Please model this.
Amino acid sequence: MLSQQPRWLKDDRNGYVRLLASIRDFIDSFANSSPARLALLIFTAVILVFTVLLSLPVASSDRQVTPLHDAFFTAVSAVCVTGLTVVSTATHWSFFGQLVILLGIFIGGLGTLTLASLLALIVSKRLGVRGKLLAQEALNNASRLGEIGTLLRIVITTSVLIEIVLAVVLIPRFMILGEPWWQALWHGIFYSISAFNNAGFTPHSDGLVPYETDLWILTPLMAGVFLGSLGFPVIMVLVQVRHRFSKWTLHAKLTVSVSLILLVAGTFAWGFLEWENDRTIANLGVVDKSIHALFASVMTRSGGFNLVDQNDMTTTTMLLTDALMFAGGGSASTAGGIKVTTIAVMFLAIVAEARGDADVRAWGRTIPSGVMRVAISVIFMGATLVLIGSGLLLRMTDEPLDKVVFEVISAFATCGLSTNLSAELPPEGKYVLSALMFAGRMGTITLASALALRQRSTLYRYPDERPIIG
Model:
């Protein structure tokens, strides 16, 4: 005879089921109302979880509790794949702390909605309409709904493969340089994930300075950062179509073209400005100077690794770096900034206006006017955030304007290059930079998506009247 379960056990179980059902219904309704708001909610929750983990005594090398503002700043920097630090990644954090940071970089680079959609795909073997909408939101609406499942698989597979290749290349070099095999393995994995996700965290106390002329280490890092900055929709096109440029999407053409233009222009400009600077590269040979210039051009648009002290650069070079950081990388990528496609659309609009063309065209395609409105909104929002952030930090500190603006743009653009101002700020200043990193990682994506998707139909139209511009 089967024994019946106690009534209190049944009630607890039913209550637990009802609680899970309520949570599921809340998430479903929230996701249906606004995937962008769901992304903000999930990213916030992930950051708070990583803050708690980094606050644990086991996360620090001295087994002491890390102050909340430092743990929170590091969690935001990792999840938002920025790379700004207020404590040394190599010396302050234990292996557990570094592992938490690396996991935050991996999750932040792929995006929480991407991972959530992938998990749904693995569990249910298919994506429903809601899952596809969430994944499409995570990838900045860069693909048609029917292609989302394929795009998700390509995103995950390509990301992991690239990171494995980078690690395989780096690990032997660290071993040759005298590191124990286990340390070389850890450093190779850490740098590969940090590079592809454009995070800029380094597990060495002196960063990459000891390897400033070592192409075996610098080349894979530059390749990883550049590929990561292109964005997953572009990587999908490169995987599927490869070198057949005529079959590329307009987004891929604009992203790759502008990225290469900025890469070449940044290399020549940075090298020209720093060529005779005794504090940076003046004492190096021509080849090493060229390596430094190329490396700086790649990293200033979101990578965050550096070979020279940012405080030693000339003021003009800092201004150039500000511009490149603000530009950023590709949409739906691990890079930050206002995105290169935004710059491309605005440049094409200016050219069309100068020529007197009614439409903005590129490679046989017409760019809708709504896209230009989104581009203007993203640029204006980015400039406004930089202005507000700079004003707040100037109010809190006595630092010069160029140093403050540099740090603010680096935070908003999730770049990670620093004049060490982040570590010197009071707690409230660190929270300001944390907010900028969060806004830079989520703001341009969610705002652009929301503006692109929001269509308010009206039954009337006011008469046209052209105001005077310029």
In short: The two ends are 89 Å apart (CA to CA). Strands lie at 360-362, 365-367. The longest strand covers residues 360-362.
